Structure formats: structure tokens, C-alpha cells
TrEMBL record:
Alphabetic keyword roster: Signal, Transport
Family: Belongs to the bacterial solute-binding protein 3 family.
Keyword Signal annotated: yes
KW Manganese (keyword) present: no
Protein's UniProt name: Amino acid ABC transporter substrate-binding protein (PAAT family)
One cellular-component annotation, GO: outer membrane-bounded periplasmic space
Residue ranges that the Swiss-Prot or TrEMBL entry lists as coiled coil: none
Biological process, per Gene Ontology: amino acid transport
Top-rank taxon, per record: Bacteria
InterPro entries: Bact_solute-bind_prot3, SBP_3_CS, Solute-binding_3/MltF_N
Cross-referenced SMART domains: PBPb
Positions of the Solute-binding protein family 3/N-terminal domain: 52-274
């Protein structure tokens, strides 16, 4: 009987100690509230708290996004992105440029590797389902560039031929759906695609007309025989799907930059030297 009583006392004591331990481990409601208050409730708040905005840009798509000889980000998209960073954080140097490719722009947003994409991103119905586009700032269509001595001036000439495109681009989607009789050779990077054209691995290359027109000016042995293909589209920055606070702020800022002439200034600095008088900026810039 004495042994049973001792065992019972041990059990009561153990239970009491366990209960005390559990109570000690329980965080107070006040601490929970403090932690919740410290955690930003939106990406916009997080950006402001961290003091840096991560913007995805191209590294090899001049004159829109590229690295110069010093390894610095340059181009039309980059110029606008710097102004966005300045308006958001008070300093254009508080931007972290993240190099992206056409095929991974959506994934970088989904995986929170970037906050905003400024990488010559054409607005399409398919992309609108997976990202949220802000106000567009450029008009664009498709173009086809080919050697001057064997120019492609009509899509019909591409039947059963090899056409070079970048994976995940509007050109890739357009030709895959509309012209399955054309053989597509796809690459990740723009430099690879244009090198393939120079090497003769395809009879032509399809991409945004803004890009191929600029490239042909720097490569006089090539010509843009098809200057506008498909419907006119728009280029816009994008944020992660559902990131409403950042999207609303970005739209307001883009309207402000347009009214202040910043986008026109970016055109004068980066695009006009390439296109010259051949293209009217009103045909490219969204009012």
C-alpha cells in the first residue's frame, strides 16, 4: 500500500512539472502580436522595410536591357526601373537588378526571386493568367530578320524551313500555334539565337520587331524583311499574381513618370540613338 502511495505521489509530481513546463513554453499573446506587427503584411511594405527592390531585367537584349563593358545594367527598361526605385525608396541605387531570361520571367515572380519584372515583357492573355501586368509603356509586334542576300519577306517562305526563336517569347508562342509547318529551333538566350542566325543554323530569326530592327542596324548584312507580324501588343512591367498593393503603387508611379516625361527621356537616351529618324517615337511609346 505504501508503494502505491509513493507511485501516486510521483505521478502527481511529474504531471505538475510537465504542466509547468508547458505553461512556461507558451508564448504570451503580447509576443504573438508583436511578431505579427513586425512582419510586413505585403511585398510593398517588405520592400520599404528592407530598403531594396529586386527588379528582373535582361542582360543580353540591347537596347532594352543589357550589361555594358563595365558589367553595369543599361537600356530602356533599366532607365525606367531606376526611376521606379527612386520613387519607391528615394534612391535609384536601392535597386537590385536580377538577370533573367524570357523563359523564366514568370517563374522568378512566382518564386519571389524578384519583386518586379522590367524585361521587355509582352502582355498576352496566357501571361495575364499567371502574373499581374502594370500599365504598358511600349507598343510591339513581331518581326523577322534574315540575311540580306537571302531575305525572308513573307512568312510563306518559311514553310519547312528552320526559324530561330527564343523559348518563352511571343514569337515562340505565335509560330508554334499559327504555323506548325515551320521548324523552330529554340534557345534560352538572345545571344545564342542571334549567333545561330550568323552561323546559318536557321534561315531567319523571329522576335519582337523593336529588337530585330535595332539588331539589323548594327548588323548591316541582315535585314528585317517582315517588320510587323501578328497583332500589335504592348510591353509592360509585371508583379506576382495577386500582389495588389505593389501593382497599384506601380501603376500610379508609371502614370507619374509618363506625365513628367521620364519615359520620353528614356527613349531619347537609349532607343533614339539606335532607331534614329526611321521610327517615330509616337509609334512606339504608349501615351
Amino acid at each position: 500500500m505504501h508503494s502505491i502511495q509513493i507511485d501516486k505521489l510521483k505521478y502527481i509530481l511529474a504531471t505538475a512539472l510537465l504542466s509547468m513546463g508547458l505553461v512556461a513554453c507558451q508564448p504570451s499573446g503580447k509576443d504573438d502580436k508583436s511578431a505579427a506587427a513586425a512582419e510586413p503584411s505585403s511585398s510593398l511594405e517588405r520592400i520599404k522595410k528592407n530598403g531594396v527592390v529586386r527588379i528582373g531585367v535582361f542582360s543580353d537584349k540591347p537596347p532594352f536591357g543589357y550589361l555594358d563593358e563595365q558589367g553595369k545594367n543599361q537600356g530602356f527598361d533599366v532607365e525606367i526601373a531606376k526611376h521606379v526605385a527612386k520613387d519607391l525608396l528615394g534612391d535609384e541605387n536601392k535597386v537590385e537588378f536580377v538577370l533573367t531570361e524570357a523563359a523564366n520571367r514568370v517563374e522568378y515572380l512566382k518564386a519571389n526571386k524578384v519583386d518586379i519584372i522590367f524585361a521587355n515583357f509582352t502582355v498576352t492573355p496566357e501571361r495575364k493568367e499567371v502574373v499581374d501586368f502594370a500599365q504598358p509603356y511600349l507598343k510591339v509586334a513581331l518581326g523577322v530578320v534574315s540575311p540580306k542576300n537571302q531575305p525572308i519577306t513573307d512568312v510563306a517562305q518559311l514553310k519547312d524551313k528552320v526559324l530561330l526563336v527564343n523559348k518563352g517569347t511571343t514569337a515562340d508562342s505565335f509560330f508554334s500555334k499559327q504555323h506548325p509547318d515551320i521548324k523552330l529551333l529554340k534557345f534560352e538566350q538572345n545571344t545564342e539565337t542571334f549567333d545561330a542566325l550568323k552561323d546559318g543554323r536557321g534561315v531567319a530569326l523571329a522576335h519582337d520587331n523593336l529588337l530585330v530592327l535595332a539588331w539589323a542596324k548594327e548588323n548591316p548584312n541582315y535585314t528585317v524583311g517582315v517588320t510587323s507580324l501578328g497583332a500589335q501588343d504592348f510591353i509592360a512591367p509585371a508583379v506576382k499574381k495577386g500582389d495588389q498593393a505593389l501593382l497599384d503603387w506601380l501603376n500610379q508611379d508609371l502614370q507619374k513618370l509618363s506625365k513628367e516625361g521620364v519615359i520620353q527621356q528614356a527613349y531619347e537616351k537609349t532607343l533614339k540613338p539606335v532607331y534614329g529618324a526611321d521610327i517615330d517615337p509616337k509609334d512606339l511609346l504608349v501615351e
